[in-house]
Amino acid sequence: MSLAREGRSLEMLLPSPCDRSHGRTTQSFAGGTALFFTDKSQYTVMDLIIRGYRESDFPRVSALERENSPGDCAPEVFIRQAGVLFTGTFLVAEHEGMVIGYTIGALMQHRPATAWIVRLVVAEQHRRHGTGGRLITAVTGMLRESGAEEVYLSVAPANRAARALYERQGFCEVDFCPAYFGDGGDRYIFRKGLVGR
Question: In Å, what is the CA distance from 76 to each residue of 71, 72, 88, 163?
Answer without folding.
Answer: 13, 12, 19, 27
